[in-house]
């Protein structure tokens, strides 16, 4: 469960520019959170088609697949139209568990989905680490059975205020982010994608030439190239979406790189 949660958070953070209130993002979150936790693996990242019950609650979510599909899409469309990111966040915490669109792991999915607008707006993420579990449960049950959001609203406000305080301490401990990565995020991602798609060997000359094409100022060029080299070394299948790359493109580029390295090694040995 902890590894699933970590993978879901990484998915949100590494795809911050692409996540949104759409099926790809929310179904993807559920698939990551529920991996190996459901009796039927086919239910991971899939809207439910069977009836479920909620513990001892008298509330019974709809069981009609067509209604679940329609209401799920309505929730996403409505959330996307809300202008305020905090209101979007709370909206997802209320409506996703109420619909219970998945066979299980609905509340966990809603809590992480509540971070989608916060991450996109570059706001402090929402954490429920210190929230008393029973208080949160009571808040959701009040919505299920009385359609009253007051208690969950208070939990949300308390949790977010605490999250902001903890996030501030963490930021101070970590220091300021790398200004090169902040200022040239788009150019860095574009350069990495170009290198891979062109099956290019990332030599110093090739990187210098591409940095010039992206109009990186001379004063920042060296630091930019260092960041690009580090990103290329860390490139792996799990983060290809960040660069809008396909697995096949990555595999083809990796084959070229390995062949070039082998060729260099052969030349080095022959010269000894």
What is the gist of this entry?
This protein is 66% helix and 0% strand. The protein is mainly α and 272 residues long.
Low-confidence stretches: none
What is the beta-strand fraction? under 5%
Shape: elongated
DSSP strand count: 0
Question: Any idea what the CATH architecture of the largest domain is?
Answer: Orthogonal Bundle
What percentage of residues falls in helices of 4 or more residues? 55-70%
H/E element sequence? HHHHHHHHHHHHH
Question: What is the CATH C level class of the largest domain, in words?
Answer: Mainly Alpha
Topology-level CATH name of the largest domain: Fic-like fold
Number of separate structural domains: 2
From the alpha carbons, calculate the radius of gyration and give it in angstroms.
23 Å
Note the topology.
Blueprint: H1 2-14, H2 23-34, H3 65-81, H4 85-99, H5 106-113, H6 116-120, H7 133-146, H8 150-174, H9 179-183, H10 185-197, H11 204-213, H12 218-234, H13 247-271
Helix pairs in contact: 1-2, 2-5, 3-4, 4-5, 7-8, 11-12
């Amino acid at each position: 469960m902890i590894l699933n949660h970590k993978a879901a958070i990484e998915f949100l953070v590494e795809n911050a520019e692409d996540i949104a209130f759409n099926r790809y993002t929310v179904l993807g979150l559920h698939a990551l959170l529920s991996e190996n936790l459901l009796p039927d693996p086919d239910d991971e990242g899939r809207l439910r088609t069977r009836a479920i019950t909620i513990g001892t609650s008298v509330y019974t979510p709809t069981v009609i697949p067509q209604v679940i599909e329609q209401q799920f899409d309505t929730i996403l469309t409505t959330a996307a139209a809300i202008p305020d990111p905090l209101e979007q966040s709370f909206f997802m915490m209320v409506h996703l568990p109420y619909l219970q669109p998945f066979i299980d792991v609905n509340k966990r999915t809603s809590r992480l989905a509540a971070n989608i607008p916060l991450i996109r707006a570059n706001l402090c993420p929402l954490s429920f680490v210190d929230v008393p579990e029973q208080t949160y449960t009571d808040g959701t049950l009040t919505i299920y059975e009385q359609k009253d959001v007051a208690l969950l609203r208070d939990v949300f406000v308390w949790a977010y205020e605490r999250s902001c305080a903890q996030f501030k301490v963490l930021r101070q401990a970590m220091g300021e982010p790398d200004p090169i990565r902040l200022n040239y995020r788009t150019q860095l991602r574009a350069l990495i994608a170009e290198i891979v798609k062109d099956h290019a060997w990332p030599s110093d000359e090739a990187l210098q030439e591409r940095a010039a094409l992206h109009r990186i100022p001379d004063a920042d060029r060296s630091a930019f190239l260092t960041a690009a080299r580090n990103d290329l070394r860390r490139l792996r299948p799990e983060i290809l979406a960040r660069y809008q790359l396909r697995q096949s493109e990555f595999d083809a580029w990796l084959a070229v790189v390995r062949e070039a390295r082998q060729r260099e090694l052969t030349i080095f040995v022959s010269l000894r």
